[in-house]
Amino acid sequence: MNRLVAVGFVCVVGLAMLFPGAAPAADIALVIGNHDYQRAPNAKSAAIDAREVAEALVDGGYDVTLGIDLDRREMRRALGRFAAKIASADKVVIYFSGHALRSDGVTYLAPVDQRNTTLVRVMMDGVPLDLVLRLARSRPGRSVVFIDAAQLKGFTANAISEPGLGSIDAGNDVLVVSAAAPGRAVRRREGRRSRFAREVVREFLSPGVRAMDAAHDLRRPAWFTGSVGTRLRLVSRGGGGGRIGGADTPAGIEAALRLDSNQRRGIQESLSLLGHDPRGIDGMFGPGTRTAIRLWQRANNLAETGYLTADQAALLQSQSAGASRGPGSRDSDYWARTGALGNAAGYRDYLERYTDGRHAGEARDTLKRMARAGTNAAARREREVWRQAVSRGRPRDYRDYLQRYPTGIWQPEAERRLAGPAAPAPDDPALVESALGLTRDDRMSIEQRLDYLGFPPGAPDGFFDASTRWAIEGYQRSRGHDATGYLDRPTLGAIMDETGDVRSGLIIDGAAVLRGLLGSGQN
Q1: Mean pLDDT of 293-316
Q2: Are 102 and 40 in contact (CB under 8 A)?
Q3: Where do the domains of the chain lie, and which CATH numbers do they carry?
Q4: Rounded to two decimals, what is the model's pTM?
């Protein structure tokens, strides 16, 4: 695991009172980015976002404790060290990016070794959000908590817990800003910073910006609750003079090197070449890279910190220089053994090691086409079963459809036909969608936007077939809407909000959709 910048075991609760003589710090921040989860999908962009926010806070004059891919013990250490500073702090910022779980109304921020197999595991492994808020309230009116736990794919829901945030009661002395409202999710892209992190840096951490003004200007799906002083500015107009951790800690020393993503990939390449597998050449130093560094340090009789000094980075590069024909050749060689084979497993193996490699775009595009082909084939099969049922018109054919597709696109219609003729209900999803008055161009724009958000609707042709209905239903379910497979105003408004600034690859700009929404009183 990545070792936290600030180390040392301390008790979290009440620590600030036990150590009143902690070193003073005018403005302090705790930034955690948990990306590489052991029992859940990666929290995309979490590590990148955390580093970017930490750098912005340093530029703003904050004493920043930064942790990447922390396990449950390291999370507690981070909070403990941070709690010891709060009593003498002026302004407090806490930023968490990763997965969260909610159980019986309580939200737990998940370390990378979080388990959700039993209630005890959920409650003992995770960090209660209430604890984080209590720490923030130590500086009432001067603390802001940023939470980015609205990942689209997280822990699997079960009878004990669900992924995401529960309800949040921030009160009137702490401002909580989230990437999305509780119960909602946002799509992420691997290797890219999130829109939420960009907004935090650009709006909240710009010199002179009042925190409450920035909160009220948030773009959906971002959301906030609670409040701070109306004059509170997280970063003064001067700024500067901050630091990450301590210059005498291993992580602080490495942070001072300011390695960019290309330099990090080079280090990972060198480790791999010397027989220390970093579990991916992606420019992000996760648990695999830290373990590889420690093994390399052990082999060279160096202190096993898992972090590099400038001299160690130079030695590592020197040792690997004669053992390779260059990073590009290694990339192509691995592609020849994986992605070039033309199967999905090979493409995934390549992307796991070379997230931003020279063939990464081809691998992602091909996997996307494969996924669409599978979805379209399933949609065609269901459409054919439904077509035959309608053409025959017999009750047993509708029952056969429902048996094969109990949650299918035409399930409501099949049940209505079995029940006999009846007037459609005013809130019938199909009638609600029809009342929107969408043109074919509007529908094409919506199909393209769904595809951009990761819900492939098939070929964008302006006709809502089974593939489109599945895409709409999947989007609605992931965002906490009623999963009907038909558009309504809340669904349409959410799609437009999430893709309103997207232009690349969209041939229809959706202006008519926006006019229709605004003209109909959409909130």
Answers
A1: 86
A2: no
A3: 29-230 (3.40.50.1460), 258-353 (no CATH), 433-523 (1.10.101)
A4: 0.49
